[in-house]
Predict the structure.
Amino acid sequence: MSSSVTHPPEIHPSAVVSLARKSDAIVISDLISIVGEDVVLDDRVRLQAHVVIEGRTFIGKDTVVFPFRVDRSCTAGLEI
């Protein structure tokens, strides 16, 4: 018999994140990232320092968003 354990996402304490439509497997690992309420983050998305994502935006699986990036109302990564 095997069991699976789901770990909560790793979110830096300085990040401002609306979690309404986010995956359980996101990682926001660095300083001061902002994710708006209309943003959808798919599995294993990694946001680095000083990232701002707002508007109707989808970030696909395994995408890394590099520092000092600002995205509004766009699609990035794979949408499957």
Residues 10-75 form one domain. Residues 60 and 80 are 8 Å apart (CA to CA). The chain has no helices and eleven strands.
